[in-house]
Amino acid sequence: GNSVTQMEGPVTLSEEAFLTINCTYTATGYPSLFWYVQYPGEGLQLLLKATKADDKGSNKGFEATYRKETTSFHLEKGSVQVSDSAVYFCALSDAGGTSYGKLTFGQGTILTVHP
Amino acid sequence: DGGITQSPKYLFRKEGQNVTLSCEQNLNHDAMYWYRQDPGQGLRLIYYSQIVNDFQKGDIAEGYSVSREKKESFPLTVTSAQKNPTAFYLCASRTATGSGNTIYFGEGSWLTVV
């Protein structure tokens, strides 16, 4: 079955530091890949997505590239801010077969950014 | 504004009680989902529905039930058979089953057993 593996957290950075959160996946066919962000006590918000190999998703300074050869979708940001502190989830969606396009999530990575 | 509304935000359940969490969307989405989130963990799929009057079990359906009588509504009942129901519950929806279509989430409901 499908699976998503994220780097374990928590990740603690100083403001303006470079961020990388690793994500690798296992899936049949050609899934779409997503990064969601969750702020404390809230639901999940889409951060960015990529629907085919070599696509780059980007939003709010974050970016991730769909790498089929390494089955990866690592999240990066060049300069983090305190307001980026949240939990980040990598996810995949496989529309094939009877999956109904449901998302499979990684375990989440807690990011804390200090001033 | 369009979106997904979950209620209540906080709910307390006594042992042996059934409780129902509401999920309503006005996005005209076809598919709806219920996920469970435990502290420090990812999301696990409970049930999902592609169309009205049809729904499928997810990975952890035992102790839960759903209905899909209207396109915009997908309530989740946590039954007394669910032995560890304390968790954060998230409802979601999307417009079609294409893998690239974004799934949108509600704000979630906290359920605590007392």
Q: Can you walk me through this structure?
A:
Chain A is mainly beta. Helices cover 0% and strands 50% of the residues of chain A. Chain A is globular. The mean pLDDT of chain B is 91.
Give the number of helices of chain B.
Answer: 0
Percent of residues in β-strands of chain A = over 45%
Termini separation of chain A comes to: 41 Å
Q: What's the main sheet of chain A like? A: 6 strands, mixed
Q: Give the fraction of residues assigned to helices of chain B.
A: under 10%
How many angstroms separate the termini of chain B?
35 Å
- Determine the number of helices of chain A (DSSP H or I, runs of at least 4 residues): 0
Give the oligomer, counting copies of the same chain as homo and different chains as hetero: heterodimer
Query: Would you tell me the structural class of the helices and strands of chain A?
Result: mainly beta
Average pLDDT score of chain B:
91
How many β strands of chain A by DSSP? 12
Radius of gyration of chain A, taken over Cα atoms and rounded to an integer in Å: 14 Å
| Biggest sheet features of chain B | 7 strands, mixed
Name the poorly predicted regions of chain A.
Answer: none
Helix content of chain A: under 10%
Q: Give the largest interface.
A: A-B, 27 and 29 residues
Strand content of chain B: over 45%
* Protein structure class of chain B: mainly beta
Taken from the alpha-carbon principal axes, the silhouette of chain B is: globular
Could you give the count of β-strands of chain B?
11
